[in-house]
Amino acid sequence: MDSKWKERIARYGYRINIATTLEENLEEYIETKIYKYIYKNFTDYTLWSLFQEEFEGFTIKDFRKIRSITKAKLHTYLLQRGVYVAIYSNRYPLYKVLYNVLIEEEPYKWIDKEITGALKEVSPIIIVVLQEQLNLI
After folding, report:
1. How far apart are the two ends of the chain, measured CA to CA in Å?
2. What percentage of the chain exceeds 70 in pLDDT?
């Protein structure tokens, strides 16, 4: 791990004070979390739990402040690693999609149609729990 990421992870090791942070720090916080999730190879329910814990306190307005490209990266990463994130559109924008994952009380149970849709959007998908459910392992 290079020193840039070590420094960022040290700075954002736990959470960010969403009430007092600057918008550019939100971007850096999310990029750091994505890097850490990739580095540690988190998937499925573990990733869902981490997302909920590390973004606790974020509001729909906070997600709205984040640049679209950063929201798209987070959406794609979560989806690719087994966290169900709905498809976004003009009527259901990224900030709402991400916020809804945050406020879920239980991890979403994927259905076949959603797996097929996710595969069209991102590939490969690394979903360990689903592979076990489908006896693919």
Report:
1. 31
2. 81
Tally of CA atoms within 13 A in the half-sphere of 19 that contains its CB: 1
For residue 40, the tally of other CB atoms under 10 A from its CB is 11
- 59, 86, 75, 119: CA torsion to nearest 10: 170
Boundaries of domain holding 84? 3-133
Tokens standing for residue 90: 């003009």
Select the highest-mean-pLDDT range: 10-19, 65-74, 119-128: 65-74
Tally of structural domains, the chain: 1
Higher pLDDT, 23 or 42: 42
Total-model pTM: 0.81
